Structure formats: structure tokens, C-alpha cells
Amino acid sequence: MTVTAVPTGAELVGRAAELVPQLRSHALWMEENRRIHDDVLGALSDSGLLRMRVSHRYGGFESDMRTTVGVISELARGDASVAWTTAVYAISTWMAGLFPDEVQDEIFADPAVRISGILSPTVRAVPAPGGVVLNGRWTFNSGALHSSWNTNAAVLVGADRQPQPIMVAVPLDDLTVVDDWHTSGLRGSGSVSTVAEDVFVPDARVLHMGPVLAGQHGSARNAGRPVWRAPFMPTACATVGAPALGMAKAAREFFMERLPGRKISYTDYESQREAPLTHLQLAEAALRTDEAAFHAFRAADLLDSKSAAGETWTPEERARVRLDLGSVCRRSQEAVGILSSASGGSSVYTDVPIQRIERDIRTMSRHAIIHPDTNLELYGRVLAGLDPNTLYI
To answer: Which CATH architecture has domain 115-210?
Structure first.
């Protein structure tokens, strides 16, 4: 199947915005049930937003990164868990486009396929005739409950070679799902664990991460497409930072909804809206949200411009996208924290969304690739003229 009319970026962002009321109406259910509601999944599929990073030849849109960031941040205005899972789907779907074309034909035989994935190589792979055999456990497998494929990292080991990271494409039916997602935040993402027990993966569905991180991959048809000319880590980083920006915007909207008629207890302010403190809080939160948006779209625009031109990336540019990711999360978390603090004691009730947003963004900021301090240190190290101390750049 091929696409004859690809929606514009503005149209796709508009579709995401239209879903916000539905996501909000199911948000409490998704948190309590630790998974995405079936109606929400159906709406996402019907909207076409899960096809943003799918090749044209499979009915996808090959959307640029600015569109992808815009869509995911809009979804986060409705619910952070949905936006986070959509970001994981977008990264994993893009990753599937790096595998050999015959593997893609297998994965995208179902036009509505959902693909999740794990970047951390916590599973052991050993060589076997015609492929590798996997054993181990992947935690934090966001979206796995509603996916049919995983693009997961593993460590290839063998007596005659040094351990090396690989990426494998595995049907979810080959894995055991462990319902262990009992957390304080992003509960609706259903980021359960999956276990591989003597799972055979043929060679065609194995990519060595070294070449992938260097911009080489197995697809002949996608090799010249701008979407897949982008480097792996900057692509992943720009995508996964988008939910934080949307959470900051949502916090402001929910704060403003509750503001009219609210007093400030134990003061003579009959209206919180009239207090100078509130003005300062709103201005500080807006400033930090604007700063988060700057970093989110700076990374996206760099990816889009360099991919379109086919330009080589410098280590500083790669490290700066990691910096942008950390900064999006830090500034968004600061904005949410300011508005949550200003929301008063009544905001701790579970039916008040801002407390959930604060827990969600705090959980997201714990992700190793997102942590602001780690990314700040990496960027400074590169600026100082040292080699990056990580492959994931």
C-alpha cells in the first residue's frame, strides 16, 4: 500500500489537539488500570498519528521531526502516558525502518502494526546457526501490552568476540509479558517487563548497534529517505523529549481552570488571581515552558535540516541534542513544579490532574537518557575537546 496524500504537519498536530479531550476523559481510568484505554488506542489508530514514522510504501507519512515533536507534545496536553507511549512507538517504528527491506515487509504486513522497543541492552544474545538466541529480561517496555513487535537492544556475546550491542526485531508473541508496572508516575503507559527465554532471532532481524549509531543500516529502500538519514540517538532524543513540553502546557491549562474564585488560605486575598505572587508564579512557569519549547524544536529543526541536506553530524551537534533533551525535561519539570506548588492543598486529590502531571514528569525525568545532569555533563565534556564517554550520542 502507498500513500497518495500525506497530511501536512499542521494537520497532524491539529488531529492530536482534537484528541486531547478524549485523552483527558480517560486519564484517570488509564492511571488506575495501568494501561492505555482501548478507545484511546482506537482513536490514535484512526487519526493516523501512529503512521508518522512509517515509510510511504507501507501507507505511512514519513513525517519530519518538527511534526513528530508537535504531535507528541499535543498528546501530552491530554495525557502524559499516552504521549510517552506514542513517542516510544514513533522511535521503534522508525527503528524498524532501518532493518533489511524483507524484514520490514514482514513487520508492516499489518498496516495497523504497533511497534515498541527498549534501548537498554539488558538481554544476552549468543550466536546460533542462522541467527542468535536471546535470554534475559527487558524492563520498562512501554507500549508492549498493545504491540505486536519489539525492536530491542541486546548484548551479543561469544567465546571469540568482545561483547557488543545489537538491535533485534522480535514478535511480542515470542516473549513473556510480566505485569509488574506498579509505579508512582506514567502509570497508564503500561511499561511492563518482557522476558526472552531461548528466543531464536534470524540474522536478518539482527542489527549491530555500532554501524547503526554511525548511520549505517540494512534497508536499501529507506537509505536515501531524509527521515532515515537522521542519526539514531538524536532522533530518539528529540522524540522522547516531546511529552515533557506537553505536560508543562497542560499544567498551565489546568491551573488556569481552577484559578477563578480560588482564595489563598490564611491570607486576606479573596482571589488568588489578584495576588502578586500568582503573577510571578505564572510568569516564571510560562518562561520555563517557552525555554522547553525552544530546546524541543531546536533539536527537531536541526534533525530536519541536516537530514534533508544529507549533512554529516559533528560530535558537538550530537551532544547538543542530548543537552536539548535534558533541558526540555528540566525546564518543563520546573514549570510544572511552580504551578503545582501554587495549586494549594486541594490539588492532592486524585481527580485534580496537576498532581498526576507532576508525578508523571518526575518519573520521566528519571530515565537514564533524559536525565538533565548527565546530558549537561556530556555536552560540556565535548565542548572541552574530550571524546564522548558513551556510544549513545
So the answer is: Beta Barrel (2.40)
What fold characterizes domain 232-383? Butyryl-CoA Dehydrogenase, subunit A; domain 3 (1.20.140)
**Cα–Cα dist 336/389, whole Å:** 32
> CA-based diameter of the chain, in Å?
78
Residue 340 C-alpha cell reads as 503545582
* Cα–Cα distance measured from residue 143 to residue 148, given in angstroms and rounded to the nearest whole number: 10
Residue type, position 273, single letter: R
Beta strand 206-208 pairing with 161-171: antiparallel
Name the pTM for this structure. Answer: 0.95
Q: Which amino acid is at 6?
A: V
Confidence tier at 162 by pLDDT (50, 70, 90): confident
Q: What's the N-to-C CA distance of the chain in angstroms?
A: 34
CA-wise closest residue to 289 among 76, 25, 5, 62: 76
pLDDT of residue 159: 64
Q: How far is CA 374 from the centre of its chain?
A: 18
Q: How far is CA 106 from CA 58, 99, 205, in A?
A: 11, 11, 10
pLDDT of residue 391: 84
Other beta carbons within 10 Å of 266: 6
Domain boundaries 9-113, CATH class: mainly alpha
Give backbone dihedrals phi and psi of 173, rounded to 5 degrees, phi first.
Answer: -65, -20
Kindly report, residue by residue over 321-369, the tens digit of the pLDDT.
999 999 999 999 999 999 999 999 889 999 999 999 999 999 999 998 9
In this predicted model, which residue has the larger pLDDT, 346 or 82? 82
Strand partners, 317: none
Distance, in Å, from the CA atom of 188 to the CA atom of 192, rounded to the nearest integer, reads: 11
Distance between CA 50 and CA 91 in Å, rounded? 11
User: Within its chain, how far is the Cα of 85 from the centroid?
Assistant: 7
What residue spans define the domains of the chain?
Answer: 9-113, 115-210, 232-383
Instruction: Report the 10 Å Cβ neighbour count for 146.
Output: 17
Closest CA to 247 of 110, 2, 7, 81: 81
Mean pLDDT of the chain: 95
pLDDT above 70 (res 1): no
| Confidence band for 4, pLDDT divided at 50, 70 and 90 | low
* Residues 94 and 65: beta-carbon distance below 8 Å: no
> Quick one: how far is CA 130 from the chain centroid?
33
